[in-house]
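Regression test attached.
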Amino acid sequence: MRTTKTLAALAAATLCAALGTATAQQPIVLQWQTANLTEKQYEPIWKATIAEFEAANPGIKIEPVLVARKDHWTKFVAAALAKQAPCIVSVDVATAAYNGYLMPMDKFIQAESAEFRGAWSPDILSAAKWKGKLYGLPIWGGTYAEIYNRELVTKAGLDPANPPKTWAEYLAWSKKLTGNGVWATAVLGGKTDTTTRVLLTWIWSNGGEAFNADMTEATFAKNPKSLEAIKFYLGLAGKQGLAAPAPTTTNYLEQTNLFSQGKIANMRNAYWAVAKVHDDNPAMKGNMFVAPIPANVANAPTMSTMTASSISASCPHPEAAWKFIKFDADKKWSIERARVANWMPLRNDLANDPQIKADPLLAQFIQIGTRARSYPLPSPIWAEIAAGDIVDAVQRALLQPEKTDEIFRDLDARLTKKLRDV
Amino acid sequence: MRQWQRRRLVGYAFVGPVFLFLCAVVVFPLSHAFWISLHRTRGLATSFSGTANYQRALTDDAFWHSLGVSIQFTVACVTLHMLIGLCLALLLNEIRFAKTALRVAFLTPWMVAPAVGATIWLWLLEPQFGVVNFLLGAIGVIDAPLAWLGTPNLALISVIAVDVWRGVPFVMLLILAGLQTIPRDQYEAASMDGAGSWQRFRYITLPNLRYLLVVASTLDIINTIRHYDIIGVMTAGGPAGATEVLPVLLYNTAFRGNRFGEAAAIGVLLLLIVLAFAIFHIRLTKPEQGSAQ
């Protein structure tokens, strides 16, 4: 009896010790979600990043959350509401911070060395702030420019060394590039925020503004230069027939497919599109050239997107999450992302890096990006209006061009009401 | 305890787990949704707002527009489901060879997950590279590629067509089961009296199927009016809101707009519409149920 009791006690103690040890040895598991993990050109980089990080930090495991781009925000919001969002995410900072989904990161970055903090300009960092607090570390971005198919341009009798600088020149080029089953360009009118991005570049290139300075009023129709730009751009798909058909279903994916297949001669896109086109059609390597966006005003800015890595508000291990974010933001991975996936680095200490300078296209994009405005725009409802209200207006105007004025006046009224309701 | 009390307790004991399950998956979510609909939500921040979300929804043009699209979509889909389903069921009931193979073939669209089917059709209908435009162009039906999902009318017709492709098998199956319960001697007697095929269909088949058709159409309406998958994947409610049915509006309001209170209010209103219709339809056809039986 006594022996049995002793044995039972020993067994229980051993089990408790084993459990305790197992618990103590359990690594911290951090989920990482960004829409880009499902993009083919990024895959080798993020896998290598995780492998090296885990090797250097045996107590931390990174679990990638793979989700299609159009479901990324939905999945994140659903998880955030359940207070189970992935620890490390890349989302629209202003919208996510406003809704309470993100954790401020000021204490983490302030604890780093001056050299680390100095790798990002105050302008870049401010794009990842909401109400004065930092909610993301800018990791990579993309500058929008005109990307041309050299072969199609040459075939049309145009000079690749002399791309259009004004709208009039762009229109003249577009007319020559359209014909025989090929169109000059594609107008984006699909239901994603890329539609809004490209629309904004046209508005800015005409000296227009879509919103007032403090983002409390929309001025798509109120600002005559904005309306002029909208009509010019959407008109390319209208009666002029210079843009590929079905613009209301054309998103980034369709646009790059058309360009890869030689169905459009030019696309307004960011540097990452180059890698995608190379992947879709290797014959396009060396067949592209880049030029600044044609503009009607001097020093018109283009657009530079900013993607930041953030820590979700419900993350139980924010210090470990910061460790990974800092690792991912390192020069090495910034260069790899630029070299392989064509994602532009946002660190200001890489412009003279030999690997960056060795890529002429990247160097051109960096040069073009020196005069760029940041995207997304700083509004807590940006995610909703950019992929919703603005896209709806663009689609309506594409389907009923004679009502463009009225459509964008309605848009101004609707957006102004929403912006003031925040 | 008396025997009848014991038997009753046993009955409750058997029903209990199912009742608890229903509470967990139906009653609690519905109550929670109703509770959220009474709040103003912005992400994680909420504040009680009473019926403000309902007032906002009912005074919003977008809600009434979506309701209109939902009605158009539902009426078209259910009508086509019933007509095509009935024709296919009649056909399958009459043929003698390859019956099983044909049934499986006709059921295949229903076996495919809605989102998967919608994604396949999205690529089939792609304007530049899709197979549908290629085939129609090859046989000379169209001169230039059509933007199936790019114009309002075509987009609505396309999503209706895809929903019909997916929904017909279910209706066909129900009606086929009903056809096989109709006594053959009724048809034989009618034939002996000189009734033609149309008369046999009108005076024997339809009356025998009437209650089943009511059930099938009611279930189909309830299923179709709350449909999200196909439209969500293919058009996300576009272009320009042409296919934005109420479930899509609800989804966009919740996940794009982060306005979960308003979205919940739209959901409750949709539930009331479906409930009202179901009650009305069943009451309308109740006397016929008795005579059909």
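Expected vs. actual: identical. The beta strands of chain B are 39-42, 45-48.
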